[in-house]
Amino acid sequence: MSNTSDVNSPPSAAAGRMANLEQQQQKVEDAPDAPNPNDPQEPERFRTVADCATGELLREALLACSTADADWKTPHIDASTSLPQSLDDEARRLLELKEYYVLDSEQEAKFERITGLASRIFDVPMR
What we know:
Blueprint lengths: L10 H20 L24 H9 L23 H13 L9 H14 L5
Helix pairs in contact: 2-3
């Protein structure tokens, strides 16, 4: 008798698993749809790495910027103290950040205080 099959499980265990699956399905159905940045009805927002499901899509999005509009580049970088910026390095950096689930997270008071302090100390703007 196998424990891995609902056929051989006690009815209450199978019913419990079924109820759990139904709850999970309902959560998926009730979840709001992800915003579509190409939909003119959606409020304007900054695009994010979360909009790109794969590294290739992220790289394409970064490439889509003209050189003048490359919003992924730091505009006033000191070349004598910095490595050259490359599209591949930026895509890799963003994908690594995406894996930590810290991008586009809700605001947290502690984090806001730390980033505000860093902004004032280093005299850099926060977006």
